[in-house]
């Protein structure tokens, strides 16, 4: 059995939903995609641009993000920002995430104590 492959797949699944929370959270202030990639990476949250951009487009199509082109600079950039609906979704899912992770932590530590 290749444990590394199994762990890599599980970690990828865990990251998916959390990335949505992080994107909605970070884009409360307007930001372009590459800047968001760098900000997440600076916090040890690796994400590839080819993962982030489709995610932002999907969130925009759901009405959770809005985008606007900034053309006053030499290089035009598309800035994304969390919408009012996105903030509602962010707040509700963050509450759920906090409660869930609290319960997971509790169960994991109970499991550790059972092994003693």
What is the number of strand segments? Answer: 3
Q: What's the number of structural domains?
A: 1
CA-to-CA gap between the ends? Answer: 26 Å
Q: Strand content of the residues, in percent?
A: 5-15%
- The averaged pLDDT comes out at 93
Subunit arrangement of the protein: single chain
Instruction: Show unreliable segments.
Output: none
Q: Treating each run of at least 4 consecutive H or I residues as one helix, how many helices?
A: 4
- Looking at the overall shape, the CATH architecture is Orthogonal Bundle
Helix content: 55-70%
The structure class reads alpha+beta
Gross morphology: globular
Question: How would you spell out the order of helices and strands?
Answer: HEHHEEH
